[in-house]
Amino acid sequence: MATWVLSECSLKPLAPVIPRPRTGAVLSSTSKVGFLETNKVLEGSKFQPLRCNLRERNWGLKVSVPLRIASIEEEEQKSVDVINGSNGVEHEKLPEFDPGAPPPFNLADIRAAIPKHCWVKDPLKSMSYVVRDVIAVFGLASAAAYLNNWLVWPLYWAAQGTMFWALFVLGHDCGHGSFSNNPKLNSVVGHLLHSSILVPYHGWRISHRTHHQHHGHVENDESWHPLPEKLFRSLDTVTRMLRFTAPFPLLAYPVYLWGRSPGKTGSHFDPSSDLFVPNERKDVITSTACWAAMLGLLVGLGFVMGPIQLLKLYGVPYVIFVMWLDLVTYLHHHGHEGKLPWYRGKVSFIISSPFFSYENDWYNVNA
């Protein structure tokens, strides 16, 4: 073994010591002595040094590890070069994104791309989410009331406001019918959840359905439609500031429930509003009554625990919930980052207008 190491390192090994025969015989010049397992032989008393294959041996062992790993910036630049064809190979440049063009797919394509198991509605699983969130809401309120510490209240407001938003999302699923296949179960759970956060369930559900049916339409969309230039210019200063100047739009949702979007009349609480057809008015009355019952319950709690405690336990989390609702909805419906000009006549494009934005960022259509 030592001889092998020496041979691989280009060191000349010592000549092996061959004991003299006791009989006095002389070692023949033709005798051959094997040297370990190297298949090298000794002829006579002359030692044949082993050949060192250090330079010929492939020490890389063909392991696929690069000598140098490219940085993230180099990889990104390489990808850009490939797209732009600057790496020596001609590539067709990707077309620029046109926010006014219809998408290269339709609703059927989207449905086909969603796995079948995603369409299965499990009411037990849906109710488990409701139970979990309700327990979290009451647990947070109990803990905050017990501790009653100003170091705890800000943390409580942030957490409870987020949980109010979670209740809204579950009620939103009831309104879409994705909570379960049972319309009565959807209606009962939706009323309990939305009324607890002062949202008229059916009134909002119907207007939200209209929003999805006419998303981005200048006239028929309910809440996220591009404003015509004439209407936008006609808004008074206060309305324009409250609707399009941060942070006021983060509190726009209660105002929207009472008065709808600019240029539209009616209310989500009024069964005679043009938001609803005649056969939906009973549903709107039911939701408005549930909303009023929740408001009465809050007034009663104010007398029992005091208005300040009610404000800390419910009022501030409600404001945080409204801010979550407006912010998340804004992010869901925000249009292309570029600014679109005023359009005239019939223009076919899909775009969404947020509750709040700066005037120059508004996407409008000239009426």
UniProtKB/TrEMBL annotation:
Pathways per UniProt:
Lipid metabolism
Q: Where is the Fatty acid desaturase N-terminal domain?
A: 1-141
Listed GO biological process terms: fatty acid biosynthetic process
Which residue spans traverse the membrane?
Answer: 129-147, 289-308, 314-331
Record's GO cellular component, any one? membrane
Picking any one GO molecular function of the record gives: oxidoreductase activity, acting on paired donors, with oxidation of a pair of donors resulting in the reduction of molecular oxygen to two molecules of water
Query: Which residues, if any, are the signal sequence?
Result: none
The places in or outside the cell where this protein is found are: Membrane
Q: Which Pfam families does the UniProt entry name for this protein? A: DUF3474 (PF11960), FA_desaturase (PF00487)
Quote the InterPro entries the UniProt record gives. FA_desaturase_dom, FAS_N, Fatty_acid_desaturase
State the UniProt keywords alphabetically: Fatty acid biosynthesis, Fatty acid metabolism, Lipid biosynthesis, Lipid metabolism, Membrane, Oxidoreductase, Transmembrane, Transmembrane helix
Q: Which residues form the Fatty acid desaturase domain?
A: 149-356
Protein family according to the UniProt entry: Belongs to the fatty acid desaturase type 1 family.
Tell me the PANTHER family matching this sequence.
OMEGA-6 FATTY ACID DESATURASE, CHLOROPLASTIC
Protein name per Swiss-Prot or TrEMBL? Omega-3 fatty acid desaturase, chloroplastic isoform B
Species name: Glycine soja (Wild soybean)
Lineage start: Eukaryota, Viridiplantae, Streptophyta, Embryophyta, Tracheophyta
